[in-house]
Each structure stands twice: as C-alpha cells, then as structure tokens.
Amino acid sequence: MMTMTKIPKKKLFIKTYGCQMNVYDSERMGELLRPLGYDMTERAHEADLVLLNTCHIREKATEKMYSELGKIKSMKSQSGGKMTIAVAGCVAQAEGEEIMRRQPAVDLVLGPQAYHKLPEMIARVSRKVGDRLETDFDTLEKFDALPKKRHVTGPTAFLSIQEGCDKFCTFCVVPYTRGAEISRPVDDIVFEARNLVHQGVREITLLGQNVNAYHGKAPAMAAATGAGEEWGLARLVRHLARIEGLDRLRFITSHPRDMQEDLITAHGDTPALMPFFHLPVQSGSDKILAAMNRGHTREDYFRIMQKMRTCRPDIALASDFIVGFPGERERDFQETMDLVDTVKFAVGYSFKYSIRPGTPAANMFGQVDEAVKHERLLRLQALLKDQQEAFNKACIGRTLPVLVTGKGKLAGQLHGRSPYLQAVHFDAPDHLMGRLLNVEITSATLSSLSAQLLYDEAIA
Ligand code: 5AD
Ligand code: SF4
Q1: Is residue 20 helix, strand or coil?
Q2: What is the DSSP secondary structure assignment for residue 199, as one 8-state letter?
Q3: How many Cβ atoms sit within 10 Å of the Cβ of residue 256?
Q4: What is d(CA 275, CA 396) in angstroms, rounded to the nearest whole number?
Q5: Which residue's C-alpha comes closest to atom 1 of ligand 2?
Q6: How many angstroms is it from 22 CA to the middle of ligand 1?
Q7: Whose CA, among 132, 239, 308, 419, lies 20 to 30 Å from 278?
Q8: Based on the structure, what is the number of domains in the chain?
Q9: CB-based contacts of 63, cutoff 8 Å, min separation 6
Q10: How far is the CA of 352 from the centre of ligand 1 (A)?
C-alpha cells in the first residue's frame, strides 16, 4: 500500500515594499511555497517564515526595511529562534552581504532574479549547510522554474512580461538590481494569462521595468508562418485581447524612448486596452533630461502624449517626476511645472532626488539643497493634485464601467476600478463582487469617486 507523507502546515508572512513588480514577485513566492505547506498569515509574529520583499529605489525605502528587520528580529527571539527570516528584492540584490552583517538574525538573502531558489535555500538553512545568499541574474531560468499555474483570488492580477533595464538613467539603481532587459516568450505569457482568466481574472496589468521595450519570442505558430520571430508590446496586447473573458488590459511602466507607433494606435482600436497611460518623464528641462541620460527631449514627450490623445481623446495620462536632480536650477524646475501645465495629468508621482551610491548622478556637481528640493516638491505636488482633482471631477455625471474588486468602507458598499484606474465606491449587494458594471458617477474627491449603480445597464 502506498503511504502519503503529510506535509506539515506552516505560516508565511510577506511584507512588500516598492513597485508592482515586487507585488507580483511576492505573489509568485507565495505560490512557490504553497506546495511546501506554507499558508499566508497577516500576522508576522505567528509566522514560521517572514519574508521582506524590498525596494532600493530611494534611500527612504531602504531605511524602512532595516527598521522593520529590527522589529522582526525581536519576534524571532520571542519565537525561541524558530522563525526564519528571508530578505528578497532589490535591497537584497544591491547589498546582500551588508544586510547579513547589519542584521545577523537574517537567515537568507535572495535577489529578484533568484527567488525561484527559495525552497532550496530554506532547506539549506534548516540543514545549516550551503550558501545563504543568492543574487544570480538568470531571469528566464527563474520563470521556467516557477509554478506554471498561478494561485489568485479576485478579478485583477499582475503578469510580469519583461524585466530589467539597459537604459542607465543616471539616477537609477534598477539596471544594477534587476539586471539587463529580458522579455518572456509570448507563449508563456499567453499560458499564464489564460490560467489567470480561468481563475476568474478579468483585468490583467502587464508589468515590466521598461514594458514597452518588450520584444518576446513569437508564438511557435506565428514564427512558422513567417509572421516574425519577435513580437513587440502592441502585438502582444492585441493577441491577449482576444482571450475570451479577459475584459481589460493595462501595462506599466513605459519609457519614452521605446514608444512605438503601433502601441499608440492600439489605444484607439483595441477596446480591451484601458484608456490609461503612464509614461514617466522625470523632468521638463532638456538640460536635466540630458544629465539624466533619458535619451529624449521635452518636445519628444509632448509629441507622444499628443498622439496618444488623438488616438484616444479621453485617455488618462500619468507620469513620474524627480525634483532636485543635480544641477536643477529654478528655471529648470519651472520647465517641469510648465510641462505639467501643458500636458494635464490624471495622476502624477513626484519624488525628491535621492542619492543612490554607485549611480553616476551620486557624484555629480550641483547637488541640490534638501530644503530647496522639499519646497519644489510641494509646489509640484500642489499642481498635480489640482489636476488629479479636476480629472476626477470631470467624471461626474458620466456613466463608467467599473470592475468590482471588493467591499467598500461602509456597510452595503462595494468598490471597484474605473477604466481610468480611479477608485469608485457605490451601494450594491455583495453578490456583484467581481462583476463589470455600469455606474453613474455622482461625486468626486482627489482620491476617489462615488457612484450609483445602474441596474438595468449591467454589462456583464
Ligand atoms: N531618486 C528619486 N526618485 C527616483 N526614482 C528612481 N530613482 C530615483 C532616485 N534616485 C523615481 C523615478 C521613477 C520612479 C519609479 O522612481 O521617478 O520613475
Ligand atoms: Fe524598487 Fe525599482 Fe526594484 Fe521596483 S524595481 S522594487 S521600484 S528598486
């Protein structure tokens, strides 16, 4: 008779810092550990394995991780040392040795392209043999080693299609933490997308550090018929849009240098592609853009955004900005303000320049005073806030399709996402969770919209 070995149940706590790519990676690490008996917990103190998935993009993000590690170390002592502490993500990649030195309670460290080795490393820790630091850079090997099937709940999901960056903006750590640009093959992406849809996902956000640089291996069928060896993002999007049950597609984050015409036109002719476009510009000054090694001018940026609006007039535009980059004078900053004024964004993310050791800008002359950075950030944020509020208020009275993603804050309320990625809440019964519904927007604030459900116009 065959005897089944029962896998003992264990608890896993994951804390994620930084971008959506890290959110995706955390989900995949959770999926990887499920067959080993790990169930998720929201409470770090009761976990057998605590995993911090870290961000290195700005100094503050890194410091947050060290302070969290201090707290987790005391939990580990209270557990009698039974807890395992793992640090993953971009800080792990950039300063793995340093983490182990600064916080000896950490059991293992693994970079963003090596996390498929997590089960093997946990085994090494328990046997007390072998390396506790893995920072290899084999992105495709990672995807091959991850479980083919996803495990998700809810109607929205992330799907990583491209990783890494070869652009080397002078302020940025990503080329060092995430490695060179790599695109996953189309067939793999389609398989993952279908699997997500099969589990009830209706909106997929394609992820990549330079997502519009995507150039993945064409499906075997297409290559055989001479339809090209590699596909770009627009072709991939059009292909995915044909998956039945997949109502919405999004992608983040793009770079102005990789903006292809067909990706712009896809926004006009592919209904599943949502009218939201995030294109970081960082600065409105040509002098600063050159010092940042962005490889485009403010005019290039205007041209792209203008074309995008021509193809899809209602599109919501979003961007990232850095203030106080070395050498930024008041007049350069004014050019950023002017760019914002001209384009009119639905959302803007703005940051004070943060020195990242090892990047070229860290050693540039003309570092800007902290107080000046702070004051510029406030002015830029005030302008972006006004634009965001104006964009939201312009939606009042419109009927929008909303994908219901969860319960609202108040009893009897649900909340969801508009095509423009706005949070929308409205009174509705729980059984409409996960549905795509038409609502009429009744009021708007900076951060969300209130709406009324249009029962007879439910579209799915
Ligand atoms: N300092 C401040 N902001 C930065 N970003 C990237 N590197 C830095 C840095 N050194 C911002 C950019 C990027 C976003 C993800 O983070 O705006 O688009
Ligand atoms: Fe942070 Fe950038 Fe790494 Fe994302 S890719 S986790 S934002 S450093």
Answers
A1: helix
A2: T
A3: 21
A4: 17
A5: 55
A6: 15
A7: 239
A8: 3
A9: none
A10: 8
Other CB atoms within a 10 A radius of the CB of residue 299 amount to 9
93 within 8 A of 56, measured Cβ to Cβ? yes
289 and 431: one domain?
no
Determine the 3-state secondary structure of 347 from DSSP. strand
DSSP 8-state secondary structure symbol assigned to residue 6: P
CATH number at 413 reads: 2.40.50.140
Q: What is the pLDDT of residues 62-109, one digit of tens each?
A: 888 899 999 999 999 988 888 999 999 999 999 999 999 999 999 999
Cα-based distances in Å from 402 to 259, 314, 391, 434, 447: 28, 16, 17, 10, 16
Look at residue 4 and tell me if it is in a domain: no
Tokens of 62: 């890194």
List ligand 1's pocket residues with C-beta within 6 A: 57-58, 171-172, 280, 282, 320, 322, 351, 353-354, 356
Query: Could you tell me if 238 and 258 lie in one domain?
Result: yes
Q: pLDDT tens digit string along 348-401?
A: 999 999 999 999 999 999 999 999 999 999 999 999 999 999 999 999 999 999
Residue nearest to atom 5 of ligand 2 (CA): 174
- Tell me, yes or no, whether 22 lies in a domain: yes
User: Looking at the structure, do residues 305 and 405 belong to the same domain, yes or no?
Assistant: no
Q: Is the pLDDT of residue 127 over 90?
A: no
Give whole-number Cα distances, 415 to 192, 223, 290, 419, 425, in Å.
Answer: 26, 43, 43, 13, 4
Are 345 and 207 contained in the same domain?
Answer: yes
Mean pLDDT of the chain: 93
pTM for the whole structure: 0.94
Question: How close is the Cα of 162 to the center of ligand 2, in Å?
Answer: 14
Sign of CA dihedral 72, 75, 76, 77: positive
Range of the domain at 80: 10-136
Same domain, 69 and 22: yes
- The whole-number pLDDT of residue 221 equals 75
CA distances to 261, 343, 393, 396 from 383, rounded to whole Å, are 30, 12, 15, 21
Ligand 2 atom nearest 209 alpha carbon = 5
Stretch 287-298: mean pLDDT? 98
Asked if the peptide bond before residue 5 counts as cis, ω within 30 degrees of 0, the response is: no
Within a domain: residue 79?
A: yes
- Kindly state whether residues 32 and 170 are assigned to the same domain: no
pLDDT, tens only, 174-187: 999 888 999 999 99
Spatial contact of 176 and 221, defined as CB atoms under 8 Å apart: no
Report the amino acid identity of residue 244. E
Q: Is 373 in the pocket of ligand 2 (CB under 6 A)?
A: no
- What is residue 128's predicted lDDT score, i.e. its pLDDT? 79
